[in-house]
From TrEMBL:
This is Phosphate acyltransferase. The keyword Transferase applies. NCBIfam families: plsX (TIGR00182). InterPro entries: FA_synthesis, Phospholipid_synth_PlsX-like. Belongs to the PlsX family. SUPFAM superfamilies: Isocitrate/Isopropylmalate dehydrogenase-like. One of its GO terms (biological process) is fatty acid biosynthetic process. Homodimer. Probably interacts with PlsY. Pfam families: FA_synthesis. The keyword Flavoprotein does not apply. Catalyzes the reversible formation of acyl-phosphate (acyl-PO(4)) from acyl-[acyl-carrier-protein] (acyl-ACP). This enzyme utilizes acyl-ACP as fatty acyl donor, but not acyl-CoA. The gene is plsX.
Amino acid sequence: MRTIAIDAMGGDNAPEAIVEAVLKAKDEMPETKFLLFGDKEQLRNLIPADRINDQLGVVATTEVIADEDEPVKAIRRKKDSSMVVAANFVKEGKADALLSLGNTGALLACGIFIIGRIKGITRPGLMPTLPVQNSDDGFNMVDVGANAKSKPEYLLQWAEMASYYAEKIRGIQTPRIMLLNNGSESDKGDEVHQAAYELLKDSNLNFQGNIEGNELLLGKADVVVTDGFTGNAVLKNIEGTSSVILHLLKDSLLNGGVMTKLGALMVKGSLSSLKSKFDTAKYGGAVLLGVNAPVVKTHGRSNERPIYFTLKQVDKMIKENLVQDFKDEFATK
């Protein structure tokens, strides 16, 4: 039976939303065991007694890593936190994967320092799946913040792992790989990006060249590789811009005159379709590529729905032996 270790105390809506998602996923994933780490009394009060069995368990912990905690210090000092105890279960082989909505930096530290890097991987990278305008498949972008500084060889390894993920987990045949840069020409960018371009071009990947920031959501790439600093800034920009546009649109429609409201009623179906296309919940969480087990981060503000999809994502990663394939591949390099 596959086992997912879940930090049940991380995130704005923990532990209620996490328990709701687990109870929903449990019935659809009979071959998967869910271990919830956190305050035993809180969790037991949320879980009906008849639902706790061989497929669902609670591991009592006494500490929580807060968002404001310094990541590395937190995982060293809060040994009995829900996140650290869950990570140690994965390290010790008592669970196959780790999921958290909590402190991103602390989760990355757990992945790197507790669960450990895959032999041959220089630096793990953080990779979400993002929407595009012309497809429901979306695209992967890596790295979005696990590394403040990057080297060309890091970007190549991230591209290789992300390409395999896109093929194995998302079902994309021969994924198109592109390098985020400040121009489409091969000589654009700083020395790191120019060198990364050459490495990607000479690899066995389906490398399609550079892509600029204004093209990311057009569906030109299945995987976009970038340095962690740029990736994080771009990700936050996409999230922030989307939020502002949706807020302004909703405000205009609700507070406009009668004609505006009639118009809104007429285009309601189209707006629902637009909302569905840019619904990131269905993609699951961001994956820390390059560590010895699946480690996945879901947005801290998530409700039950994106957590449910992330559980399905993690389960598929375990089922498809994704990390073992990475180990086999990079052990020979």
